[in-house]
Amino acid sequence: MDTAQRGMGLDWAGAAELIRRSAAEAKAVGGRIACGVGTDQLGPGAHTLDEVRAAYEEQLALVEETGSQAILMASRALAAAATTPDDYLTLYAHLLRQSAEPVVLHWLGPMFDPALDGYWGSADLDAATETFLQVISEHPDKVDGIKISLLDAQREIDLRRRLPKGVRCYTGDDFNYPELIAGDDRGFSHALLGIFDPLGPLAAEAVRILDTGDPKGFRELLDPTVELSRHLFQTPTRFYKTGVVFLAWLAGHQDHFAMVGGLQSARSLPHLARAFELADGLGLFPDPALAETRMASLLDVYGVSR
Question: CA 119: distance to chain centroid?
Fold first, then answer.
């Protein structure tokens, strides 16, 4: 399940059904998935902290019931209702105490969702970091790891170096991921990235190379993908999903280019055309002829002569 903004057209009932079905499919082949726990069933408008807590509890119960790992997502409703850092400390402490097993905490920056500006109780990222770290330090046994989506490599490095022993750092930085995953002599970030969807087999091969102790070979394979990632995640970043679904269609992983809420129209034709060019240059299409045919059909819809 998407660990970023889930409230973009798919309602909670639909998301809950997908969680149940996906968890069952994973279990059937001996696997397990992680699912986002948020408050998107509340919808727009003002909500009390008690309502926010209850919404989190409802989703946490469902995810744990399916046997999936929970990712506590950043909540728009909490960002609107909280007035101090203590509001975050209190609510997250309550959720962590009742979680059945360690969860992943997600800090999603406002570049992905403007409604999350000032999360953790301050628009000052240094102050917000201290609150975030306090949540973790007070409940290290209930935090498997943290996902950082701030698109600031040095801030992520500084933060991961301050994590309690045993708490992982999962990078959500789709701009600087090769260096963050390769790491340094003081640690590294695990990959939990949107860009790894379109990169697929190429990313898997890069990680296999890294596992052999060859960070140079890893970077040589993954560094050339950054241009595509930065293109897909350019401002407004929250529309990166349009490019991801577009490339999945071109690659033959799905038979249509249609999205919930009409988000297939969230990016311009020139943007999509450039994504096609970059992905093709990386060899990401299993069937290049199919990708070319589908790209041509999209151009026809727009009346573009070729």
Answer: 17
Alpha-helical runs (H) found in the chain = 12-28, 49-65, 76-81, 85-98, 125-138, 153-160, 177-182, 196-211, 215-222, 226-232, 240-250, 269-281, 288-301
Phi, psi of 76, rounded to the nearest 5 degrees? -60, -40
Q: CA-based angle 78:84:87, to the nearest 5?
A: 55
* CA–CA gap between residue 168 and residue 151 (Å, rounded): 18
C-alpha triplet 210, 187, 220: angle, nearest 5°: 30
CB 198: neighbour CB atoms within 10 A?
A: 26
pLDDT (tens digit per residue) in 219-270: 999 999 999 999 999 999 989 999 999 999 999 999 999 998 899 999 999 9
**pLDDT at residue 4, rounded to an integer:** 56
Name the nearest CA neighbour of 172 among 113, 95, 96.
113
Nearest residue to 111 (alpha-carbon basis) of 149, 147, 154? 149
* Overall pTM > 0.70: yes
